[in-house]
Amino acid sequence: MPATAPALEPAALTQRFSLEATRPGAAEIAALADIVPRGTAVYLTAVSTQHMRELVSAAAAMRKSGLEPVAHVAARRLASADALREMLAGLRGEADMRRLLVIGGDVDTPQAFPDALAVLQKGRLREAGIEEVGIGGYPEGHPRIPSERLEAALDEKIAAAAAQGLRVHIVSQFSFSGEHIVAWLKKLRSSGIKNPVGIGLAGPTSVAALIRYAKRCGVSASLRGLMSGAATGLVGNVGPDRIIDMLSASQRELGETHLHYFSFGGVLQTARYARDKASAGQKAAAHP
Asked: Is 44 strand, coil or helix?
């Protein structure tokens, strides 16, 4: 496993970030490229109704706009190994994609691959030109998977990817609890996992939307805090300011991390928030 990068100064936590986008169109991609720094990683979420050509076209447009597209691959939704190869060929050939996020995909009946581990083991990703994979992390656990199995699966995925010659980073589910995130990261590091981590945060959106997504994604522990008003002021659109402050205070203990924003309030609004947080952090670093 790669060694942990040198600890960052607290204000530096906001400087590097990635975003999630769901079915972005050409105009949205162009607008996004005007907001965030060139080379920003934008993860293209797996949508069950999206045709492969739409995904490839969006990734190619991202690349042309100077952004770094990273496609989600939902293992359990893949119809066949051939379908995976076709998708990878399109993403590599038209979008020069070298990074993926490999997830299980929440469907009850898998098709060609039972889980993300199987894609890492048998998907021949390195042969398709992929150089780095992201895998999921769960600060609050998973509603359908025991915590012991989650921990074992994380080790297995890292080992499988390394065996294929792939670099590995972790992207966590979003949480409304800085305490949960910090505790999970410390446990991760103490267990010997030093891989980079994208810390999942919900970008600014309405409280009603946050509660809806939290219920859907199973972040029940921090959802209780959100609904009680303990985590935020619950006024207007809510952003993860409090969590970012807590993470910044603990940054030196957390290893190599960056912020990964889920765009529940829209990718452009989330991108502006991330840009403004990065700018404020840069000013704070320049004038401590």
From this structure: strand
Q: Comparing C-alpha atoms, which of 163, 189, 175 is closest to residue 253?
A: 189
> Tokens standing for 177?
């609890």
Contact partners, residue 174, CB within 8 Å, separation at least 6: 200, 201, 202, 213, 217, 219, 262
Listed in sequence order, the residues at least 6 apart from 27 whose beta carbon sits closer than 8 Å to its beta carbon are: none
Predicted TM-score (pTM) above 0.70: yes
Q: Please report the sign of the dihedral spanned by the C-alpha atoms of residue 215, residue 181, residue 246, residue 101.
A: negative
Q: Which two tokens stand for residue 237?
A: 């659109």
Contact 63, 96 (CB under 8 A): yes
Domain extents in the chain: 10-286
The C-alpha atoms of residue 40 and residue 199 are separated, in whole angstroms, by 15
The pLDDT of residue 233: 44
CATH class (in words) of the domain with range 10-286: alpha beta
Extract the tokens encoding 197: 């981590």
Residue at 282: amino acid letter: Q
Enter the tokens of residue 117: 């581990």
Neighbours of 146 (CB within 10 A): 10
- The CA distance from 271 to 35, in Å, is 7
**What pLDDT, in 10s, does the model give residues 254-264?**
999 999 999 98
pLDDT tens string 131-147? 999 999 988 877 777 78
